[in-house]
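Why does residue order matter? Because the sequence determines the fold. Keep that principle in mind as you read this record.
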Amino acid sequence: MKRFVLIAALVLVIALLAGCAPSTVAPEAGAKPAGFWLGLWHGFTVLFTFVISLFNDKVGIYAVHNAGGWYDFGFLLGVMMFWGGGGRGAAGSKRR
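Structure:
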Protein backbone atom coordinates (compact mmCIF):
# COMPACT_ATOMS: atom_id res chain seq x y z
CA MET A 1 0.00 0.00 0.00
CA LYS A 2 2.85 2.39 0.85
CA ARG A 3 4.46 1.74 -2.52
CA PHE A 4 1.22 2.59 -4.34
CA VAL A 5 0.85 5.86 -2.44
CA LEU A 6 4.48 6.78 -3.20
CA ILE A 7 4.08 6.07 -6.92
CA ALA A 8 0.78 7.98 -7.07
CA ALA A 9 2.36 10.98 -5.32
CA LEU A 10 5.34 10.92 -7.70
CA VAL A 11 3.07 10.81 -10.75
CA LEU A 12 1.01 13.70 -9.36
CA VAL A 13 4.11 15.85 -8.74
CA ILE A 14 5.46 15.17 -12.24
CA ALA A 15 2.09 16.01 -13.80
CA LEU A 16 1.91 19.28 -11.85
CA LEU A 17 5.44 20.25 -12.89
CA ALA A 18 4.73 19.36 -16.51
CA GLY A 19 1.78 21.75 -16.51
CA CYS A 20 4.17 24.61 -15.71
CA ALA A 21 6.55 23.95 -18.58
CA PRO A 22 7.25 26.83 -20.96
CA SER A 23 5.66 26.59 -24.38
CA THR A 24 7.39 27.11 -27.72
CA VAL A 25 4.11 28.14 -29.35
CA ALA A 26 3.91 31.81 -30.40
CA PRO A 27 2.11 33.91 -27.75
CA GLU A 28 -1.18 35.68 -28.33
CA ALA A 29 -1.13 39.32 -29.36
CA GLY A 30 -0.72 41.53 -26.29
CA ALA A 31 0.40 38.67 -24.04
CA LYS A 32 2.62 39.69 -21.13
CA PRO A 33 6.20 38.40 -21.53
CA ALA A 34 7.72 36.09 -18.93
CA GLY A 35 9.62 38.02 -16.27
CA PHE A 36 11.94 37.29 -13.35
CA TRP A 37 9.58 35.09 -11.31
CA LEU A 38 8.58 32.92 -14.23
CA GLY A 39 12.26 32.62 -15.19
CA LEU A 40 13.04 31.49 -11.65
CA TRP A 41 10.29 28.85 -11.85
CA HIS A 42 11.49 27.67 -15.26
CA GLY A 43 14.98 27.34 -13.79
CA PHE A 44 13.65 25.18 -10.95
CA THR A 45 11.79 22.89 -13.36
CA VAL A 46 14.49 22.72 -16.06
CA LEU A 47 15.26 19.01 -15.51
CA PHE A 48 11.62 17.95 -15.82
CA THR A 49 10.90 20.20 -18.80
CA PHE A 50 14.01 18.94 -20.58
CA VAL A 51 12.81 15.36 -20.32
CA ILE A 52 9.33 16.35 -21.50
CA SER A 53 10.78 18.39 -24.38
CA LEU A 54 12.46 15.26 -25.73
CA PHE A 55 9.02 13.78 -26.43
CA ASN A 56 6.90 16.88 -27.11
CA ASP A 57 7.82 19.55 -29.67
CA LYS A 58 5.53 22.15 -28.07
CA VAL A 59 7.45 22.21 -24.78
CA GLY A 60 10.80 23.96 -24.37
CA ILE A 61 13.08 24.49 -21.40
CA TYR A 62 13.23 28.24 -22.02
CA ALA A 63 10.34 30.67 -22.62
CA VAL A 64 10.70 32.28 -26.04
CA HIS A 65 8.46 35.24 -25.18
CA ASN A 66 10.35 36.75 -22.21
CA ALA A 67 11.27 40.14 -20.76
CA GLY A 68 14.99 39.81 -21.51
CA GLY A 69 17.67 40.22 -18.86
CA TRP A 70 15.46 39.76 -15.81
CA TYR A 71 14.02 36.51 -17.18
CA ASP A 72 17.54 35.28 -17.94
CA PHE A 73 18.71 36.20 -14.43
CA GLY A 74 15.75 34.39 -12.84
CA PHE A 75 16.29 31.34 -15.05
CA LEU A 76 19.98 31.06 -14.17
CA LEU A 77 19.29 31.70 -10.48
CA GLY A 78 16.64 28.96 -10.50
CA VAL A 79 18.99 26.50 -12.22
CA MET A 80 21.77 27.29 -9.74
CA MET A 81 19.44 26.90 -6.77
CA PHE A 82 18.09 23.57 -8.07
CA TRP A 83 21.51 22.10 -8.91
CA GLY A 84 23.35 23.53 -5.90
CA GLY A 85 25.20 26.42 -7.53
CA GLY A 86 28.84 25.52 -7.42
CA GLY A 87 29.73 26.44 -3.89
CA ARG A 88 30.01 22.80 -2.95
CA GLY A 89 33.06 22.37 -5.18
CA ALA A 90 34.71 25.51 -3.86
CA ALA A 91 34.17 24.48 -0.25
CA GLY A 92 36.15 21.29 -0.75
CA SER A 93 39.31 22.96 -2.03
CA LYS A 94 41.97 24.18 0.39
CA ARG A 95 44.36 27.07 -0.10
CA ARG A 96 48.05 26.41 0.20
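The chain has a mean pLDDT of 75.
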